[in-house]
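4.2 Preliminary Data

To establish feasibility before requesting continued support, the project team ran the inverse folding procedure on a target of 168 residues. The structure was first converted into the token representation described in Section 3, and no sequence information of any kind was made available to the design step. The complete token record follows.
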């Protein structure tokens, strides 16, 4: 399997491992886990697991994307397993801490898939239209930030601060 077929894993490696300091790899992986959405972490974990299950790793491609030079397949597998373990542990501890307690402007807890209503006219940066007070937004997505949510409005994905929303 080519690493380019695993787009999220390749993007993660090329973005988060720009230098060749092996000692900071686990810390860098934890930083990714706290900064990314649950869905993106899940995709990277799944793709890393799929790559580890392959009989032969694409050493040159893996080394190039991760800015690492592996002597053999065993060394590459050990490094990838270490990164995968750090991702899994970070993801589990992130959710165990209850870090996803997101509240609306009235203090009500918001959950994945809830519907919310805009309480103030909002200007949309880079958009031609504004969000009017009273606009109903369905199926919100929690992004790991207790003060923001992600949603789709008129085909565009937006990140909105929860202080301008109330649970519908």
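Position-by-position output of the design step:
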């Amino acid at each position: 399997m080519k690493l380019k077929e695993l787009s999220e894993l390749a993007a993660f490696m090329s973005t988060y491992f720009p230098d060749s300091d092996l000692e900071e790899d686990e810390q860098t992986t934890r930083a990714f886990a706290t900064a990314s959405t649950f869905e993106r972490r899940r995709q990277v974990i799944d793709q890393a697991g799929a790559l580890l299950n392959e009989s032969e790793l694409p050493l040159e491609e893996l080394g190039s994307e991760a800015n690492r030079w592996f002597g053999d397949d065993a060394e590459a597998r050990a490094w990838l397993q270490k990164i995968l373990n750090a991702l899994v542990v970070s993801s589990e501890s992130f959710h165990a801490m209850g870090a996803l307690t997101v509240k609306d402007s009235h203090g009500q807890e918001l959950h994945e898939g809830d519907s919310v209503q805009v309480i103030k006219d909002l200007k949309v940066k880079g958009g031609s239209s504004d969000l009017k007070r009273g606009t109903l937004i369905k199926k919100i997505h929690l992004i790991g930030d207790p003060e923001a949510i992600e949603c789709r409005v008129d085909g565009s994905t937006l990140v909105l601060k929860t202080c301008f929303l109330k649970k519908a």
